[in-house]
Amino acid sequence: MRNTLKLLAVLAALTVPLAAQGGSDTKGKFFFKKTCKSCHTPGSAAKEITPLSKTQAQWKAYFAAGKHKKGAEKIDSVVKPEQVKDIQTFLVNHASDSPQPETCGG
Amino acid sequence: MGTIRMDRRLFLKSAGATAGAVAATQVGCLRYFKKGRSSAAETKEIPTTCELCPNKCSAIAVVEGGFVKKLNPNPENPKSRDMLCARGNAAIKQVYDPDRIKQPMIRVGARGEGKWKPVSWDEAFDFAAKKLSEVKDKYGPQGTLWSSTEGFQEVFFKNLGLAFGSPNIVRHPTLCLASVNLAYSATFGTVPSFDLLNSKFVIMSGANRFESIITPDTMDLIGGVMERKAKLVYLDPRFTVTAAKADEWYPIKPGSDLAFILAMIHVIIKEGRHSKDFVATYTTGFDQLAEHVKQYTPEWAEKETEIPAADIVRIAREFADAGARALYYAGRRSSWYQNDFQMRRAQAILNAIVGNWDQMGGMVPNAKLPKGEFLFMPWDEPKAARVDEIETAFPLAAKGDGVYLKLRENVLSGKPYPVKGWMVYKQDPMNSLPDQAKTMKMIEQMDFIGVIDLQMSDMAWYADVVFPESAYLERTDPVEVMPGIWPAVVYRQQVVKPIHDTKPNLEIVQGLAKRLGLSDYFDYTIDQWVEAEFKDLPIPMAAEHMKKHGVWAASGQPSYGKTLNPEHRFVTKSGKIELFSERLQEAGHDPLPVYTAQPQPRNDQFRLILGRVGYFTHANQSNNVWLHEFMKENDLWINPKPAERLGIKDGSYITVTSSVGSVKLKARVTEEIRPDCVFMLHGFGKKSKMQSLVYNVGASDAVILETAWDKVSGNAAFHETFVKVANA
What are phi and psi of B128, to 5 degrees? Predict the structure, then answer.
């Protein structure tokens, strides 16, 4: 029993916390920059968007609604469905109220 | 829905990337020493960016006959203010240093014995990849540790560790200013710059800015003080050069700076001297702060700090009267005590209530400049949690940096899992971490250690394989935006060809990645990377401009007040400047800074305090032949009173002993330090015989420093060690 508990504790420690959101921050950043930022940049037709454009709750609500272009189309019609969760993870992790302390370099 | 598996085909489809060939530069070894310089050769001036410290000043290299003849400051960079310091000038001797690692080497004797076999790059890569794969097979990718210090090419090293599948990337900030970063982030959502050029009243706690150079702060402070625009109040147990230049110096009792700051806040609020409009519009939690600081009277603080209450009251009033142009300067140095975060946060709160935010002469959020980004193929996230348990132990800390000392404790204990492989880039944990004996134990329990560095640091001396990196003057690096009040984009371009069989870090990473089956993630050249970064610079012919000038600084004029809009959202939980922090409370920390008196040394003990000088960067340049001229050996500062009691004479050898180690060095008997403290400089007493000027000369503070860290940020606390001193 004690060994089983130890094993469970080790398995729990090995679980990446980000997995709770089910997405990859690294890949989300890539897809966001590659896809979303192709339109949502300063001077483009679409409004500039960065992770700081919304709070964590607002980003979660945005992806829960799943709409793009003020509701005119589904978000998975502009971003591949399998990429949506990664982009959501990236945007939520770096939102305007996210606890992301600044660091040096890196 | 899970994350999608990224493979090369998908990446190429997404990114439109093209494969680039890696062009490794190989030149004849020791050519410089064999042929010397040609005085008749053509002279060129090539702009680049200094790397002798983290300031990243712009320099112009004068190159004659393929060799660097001189380095000049580049006046186009507003951050470096047309200055290149002694360290910057001594970069020439970094290139032409006979102690440099001149080719890859594999250890053939015992670790630390100093027996090396020169090998080809292929042999070194094959050896390291085999060892890393063996660790991975036995312990998983999380069984490897990847530690590095900051630099333009650090990103490639860090990415190799992540692509390998290890979550255990540990960077330098928790040996540096993680507590400052976290304190200001928790309060303002960002870490601002301090407008010393235009401030009128500056207080510095131990930030020895006249000797520990930060650009532009050091030059701006000199301008401010010399021209009497600013009043400088300086708190430090030691009489530094900054103390000598200050208007007022207080040799504060170590560990009590927080009491001084809280008493200042007490006075300012009690007398209604805070900026009421600013506090009402931009902050949250003022009422809780006001109630909280009622207990921290100047009379109480006098007993804690040994600074007279009347002076605390007067300084608080003068500070508040200077208002928007008053600064409690954060500085850039490591933590001192286990409450360091709260001391830094009290500074941030004090700055906030006088309304110096985003004002000329106050604290200014950093302006940034746009640049492009090379989109490399992303990898699967590492599956294991970090070995330092940062998520639970330090939930507010920067996750990507790790927490170094907690990490070392966990690695030594083997919990939550074993770590048996250690890759190190440009860092010397043997000297940058306290308690060298513990670091040595960590080294002993590694199955494999690989080090990438220019010089044979003490860490490299104990490695199994060393990969020599080209000096900054021999390579091109990624483009960097230097945010600040005067932001700039800087470019470090190759000035001369490598004189030894060395490579830039990217090519070392690519050599390892190829053998580890990770080439797809590093399928680019430095030129492709840099071109992508140039692409979004909003200037015509950006690449040509950067190659010709080495820097771009937009208008060169500061812009104040952009965030002084009631609708502005700070990157905090509430969107306001958080005097009271719910997020800290939720994480189990004090939501307002609470003072706890620090333990003080017994009569037969001293507190060991640390500091820096202008001619070395940490433990790094003491072996540079030009800089070595400034100081050839470190010594221990000790006040004449205890020296007399102990029979210690100036210049005599003494032993300094803590609970973790003992060192021998010379005594400097001086009035310039409190009687209850001793001080020694970092960077001496090296174990590496390839640091020939400082090998076994003086002593390393890492031997006697004890392990302690700040409770919130995990930052190493370097002023917690008590020592005994005796004649040797």
Answer: -65, -40
Dump the DSSP string for B352-363. Answer: HHTT-BTSTTSE
Domain final position from B331, B364, B397: B364
Phi, psi torsion values for B663, nearest 5 degrees:
-135, 160
Instruction: Answer yes or no: is B551 within a domain.
Output: no
Contact (CB, 8 A) for B721 and B709: no
The ipTM, to two decimals, is 0.83
Q: Which of residues 48-67 of B touch A (CB under 8 A)?
A: 54
pLDDT tens digits, one per residue of B596-655: 999 999 999 999 999 999 999 888 899 999 999 999 999 999 999 999 999 999 999 999
Tokens of B260: 């001084």
The answer to whether residue B320 is domain-embedded is: yes
Tell me how many domains chain B contains: 2
Give me the pLDDT at residue B76, please: 95
Least confident of A25-34, B154-163, B278-287, B719-728: A25-34
Domain's final residue, options B364, B384, B400: B364
C-beta separation of B309 from B182 below 8 A: no
Neighbours of B339 (CB within 10 A): 25
A103 and B158 within 8 Å at the Cβ level: the answer is no
Look-up: residue for tokens 């371009």? B493
B:164-183 residues touching chain A, CB 8 A cutoff: 167, 171-173, 176-178, 181-182
Q: A13, B396: Cβ pair inside 8 Å? A: no
Structural domain boundaries enclosing B247: 193-364
CA nearest to B389 within chain A: A13
Predicted local distance difference test score (pLDDT) of residue B564: 97
How many degrees, rounded to 5, is the angle at CA B323 between CA B321 and CA B324? 155
Residue length, chain B?
Answer: 728
Q: How far apart are CA B276 and CA B294, in angstroms?
A: 18
Distances (CA, A) of B390 to B387, B393, B715: 8, 5, 12
pLDDT tens, B547-601? Answer: 999 999 987 789 899 999 999 999 999 999 999 999 999 999 999 999 999 999 9
- Dist CA B390 CA B397 (whole Å): 7
